[in-house]
């Protein structure tokens, strides 16, 4: 079963976008159709897994310009680019911006469906990662200043004795703080603690 989600299709050719929409609706996807980048930008995106199937050549703002803009404003919706003029530089530029796939018209149904499945799975993973990070940040906010210092130094690779020296406290106190940090964050191992510090971008 492909993952469920919303597929946004931006193409100035009405026949193309409607035929793609009909195909996807027949497979129980929710579909939203737009004739231009501006039409898409007017809509408030629902908080659900989604992807954007985007024609490269559009009137006014091009597909690549829309993709660049969404990246700049940190809208993480995965993008699938499509074009009737599949030149390599355009493809490379789109992929560098993070496009999931680049499809040349006329698009084979299966190629489109495979790309959409991959894109929506990517969006689900991104949302899960963001939720886990938000949860971790909430737990981190509960740490005391000293616990944060100990966590940062431990995660940077220092031994308990070195952390104690760095903070001018006893090794026993370091162990106490370290244990408290691991309990509050739900870190079962030192390796897990290091990964959490990386996710939180703590600098030693």
Automatic annotation (TrEMBL):
Keyword terms: DNA-binding, Phosphoprotein, Transcription, Transcription regulation
Entry annotated with the keyword Hydrolase: no
Domain (HTH luxR-type): residue spans on this chain: 136-201
Q: Which residues form the Response regulatory domain?
A: 6-120
Sorted alphabetically, which InterPro entries does this protein's record hold? Answer: CheY-like_superfamily (IPR011006), Sig_transdc_resp-reg_C-effctor (IPR016032), Sig_transdc_resp-reg_receiver (IPR001789), Tscrpt_reg_LuxR_C (IPR000792), WH-like_DNA-bd_sf (IPR036388)
UniProt modified residues of type 4-aspartylphosphate: 55
What Gene3D superfamilies does its record include?
A: 3.40.50.2300, Winged helix-like DNA-binding domain superfamily/Winged helix DNA-binding domain
Protein name as annotated: FixJ family two-component response regulator
